Amino acid sequence: MMSENELTMKDLIEIVDQKLDEYMIVQTPEDLFKSMRYTVLLPGKRLRPVMCLETCRMLGGDFEKAIPTACAIEMLHAQTLIHDDLPCMDNDDYRRGQKSNHKVFGEAVAVLAGDALLTFAPQIILTKSKDLTAEYKLKVLNEYHQYAGAYGVIAGQVIDIESENGKISGETKDVLKYIHLHKTSDLFKLSIRTGAIIAGASDEQIEVLTEFAEKLGLAFQIADDVLDEISTFEALGKTPGKDKNAGKLTYVSLFGIENSKCKLTCLFDECYDIMNAHELKSQIFTDIIEGIKKRVKI
Amino acid sequence: MMSENELTMKDLIEIVDQKLDEYMIVQTPEDLFKSMRYTVLLPGKRLRPVMCLETCRMLGGDFEKAIPTACAIEMLHAQTLIHDDLPCMDNDDYRRGQKSNHKVFGEAVAVLAGDALLTFAPQIILTKSKDLTAEYKLKVLNEYHQYAGAYGVIAGQVIDIESENGKISGETKDVLKYIHLHKTSDLFKLSIRTGAIIAGASDEQIEVLTEFAEKLGLAFQIADDVLDEISTFEALGKTPGKDKNAGKLTYVSLFGIENSKCKLTCLFDECYDIMNAHELKSQIFTDIIEGIKKRVKI
Asked: Is some CB atom of chain B closer than 8 A to the CB atom of A168?
């Protein structure tokens, strides 16, 4: 393997893809594992595992120790996609340009494949992280359960679904922020915090990076909302304009395209400020931010 | 608390119910936690957590150390009930005499409450097992993920669903055994194995108890199939005859009532043989077995 200093985003994506392919080997029952594998291996930017590995590397840690955790986070992300796409949830037929999981394997298997990924992912952390001590494994698992569950991603998804059904308690903009913080930022926090923990970061460093992850996650979600308005099926890999047509609460529906782009610029500036203030140097995080800016044309 | 030697099944059920009530406190988002709490706290026999605690006690361990794990297993069990009852799965409107989760909270919240329980349960093991060392927590979590996931309960559920849709590969009786081993015995194994691990049991003891759990689980599932045929809604807490009407593959549909009762008697005898051969003394396990025998009239 090449020197860590030379690793690009493409290199990290390749490492993640290769390991995911290895971890997601089809076992018995075949349909279950095929369904799990199908969504986990859909072509993607592997943003969350890359952020986990890059955070570890950026803080001077051995990023290879973080590979099982990084892959587990991508599996968890795939789980949220499978269940979000179900007819009783967002009812999406396409994901990353391919048919969504339940359109290929049926609803029952899709529900069960999501369930299975929720326990398979931490099992990967438990059984494949051979370089982590018991204490570190427990720390990482604690993060996983905190951000994956009822206090994290799922909290965001419940409030999102309820807001779609017109059940909003509190100021609309606060509800929207709650949804974004949990649905999107929490997986960014999980990725970046576990990468930092595995690198042996101090509590103070972890705090700073949590703030960074929160802002990056909010920006990513706003960018996603903007793209849903201005993009095509080909560029998006899923049906565009769906949120708008469903009357869904999004940053764009609430504040308009121009204000959303303005907010995005602000959030990215704040991300760079944090990196500069704490001497966090990472070409890959810079590439991630600049990549999003380019896609939404700011 | 009274001396452990005097503890009855009723005492253990009370301990579990009280702790579940405490762990399942309603937090934000309220609907999510209410939905999780609803199914976990449905009145029940708490068979799995009781088996976990009783195994620990029977082997000379401090059963209080096993309380978080025992409760986590009941949460996991509730998760399987919530998702099994969904319209795309078994489509059951009632569970334990009450409306099933999605009939009260809607399908979307029911899916998410199940998901949340899958991460909430191990989080309880992680954060509430203050008397377990890091090594022991990891051992217990490893069991949890092994039996809860794609290698365990979910494997059984997938094959069960497929068999309902007429997709059976292999001999019918082998498929049925596979379903029972995973859908039912795996949670019994998880309960009994974790109780044994927390008691500090030897690998040999754990092996013996795994065999015991497998037989008890198979017996329990056959009894459930028999009751589905001979019982009423009031006694069952769910719609009886449903499996039969759905043309579902069950022990009774394959071998008939009399052969099923015969198999049950055999399995219980084997359970007692294991207990006697290894000097495992437990009034509570005896009560569990005799209770089932009484219900199915053997």
From this structure: no
